[in-house]
Task: structure prediction
Amino acid sequence: MSLAVTLSRAQEGIAAPQVVVEVHLSGGLPATNIVGLPEAAVREARDRVRVAIQSTAFEYPNRRVTVNLAPAELPKDGGRFDLAIALGILAASGQVPREKLDDCEFLGELALTGALRGVPGVLPALLRARACGRRVVIPRENATEAALVSDVDVRVADTLAEVCAWLRGAQELSAPVAVENDGGVDDGPDLSDVRGQLQARRALEITAVGGHHLLLIGPPGTGKTMLAERLPGILPPLSESEALETCVVLSIAGQPTDLAQWRRRPFRAPHHTASAVALVGGGSTPRPGEISLAHNGVLFLDELPEFSRHVLEVLREPMESGHIVISRAARQSTFPAQFQMVAIL
Result:
């Protein structure tokens, strides 16, 4: 039977729903069709995958290739399914063993040379794969954030050829180096740098202990911004679960995680000209905004009266509920939004 099944993960907010990649080879004129609500980047995978397979010295089937991405109602975007599609085609044509694909999930974009490129949103996919008890193969570019997750079997590869050799048992794939973390964080702005300002320092300490929001009022040049930047330094370091939540948001936003400060609370300071979408997030593929990027940290609004009223109104719901729900066409994505706000009037 010319049918093979591989597993991958889509990106939908902080969730990573499973995607089953079904590949079927049949007779007829040679053609490759991808179905299952693919967007443009996924439809273009048929050309990337074909050239990558040929560049890796494998044979691309001279038959009708049908690729189904299930569930069909879930929109698929990005190049994250390239590796799973390529391995499904090779397995359906008998060039790699099918049984080796059963307990593995594959993420990665393919270059025309067969090299693997990193993709955003790997961290939430690893967390879901850990819950399912599966191993995951990812590009080496994503090894840094993969090292943050413990108790999950992750393998990193540089090329499609390495993955195929691993499936055949010809070589081993390395695992990401685990992060050695003693609970500390790197140096940053510290409240001990401030001389005087006893009343303002006391206000920051009360804010840090009680988890309150803070409004600083005073003339220019009195050190309000300097004090606000030092609030994360007196907050307790993030716990492992909180740090993973914060890193998940960064992974979805495509921002690299700095291992030196992954336990440090984020500090976001959007400009007063920022739009409502910049704060709450959005886009054709929903991405987190400044509010979600400040999750478990501090959102700093300098010159509060300069922000438009509409922008300030969008802060009300996440401050009350602790999360943001973004609806776009048929997609609905939820992002976390628990933060302490510091504003300057």
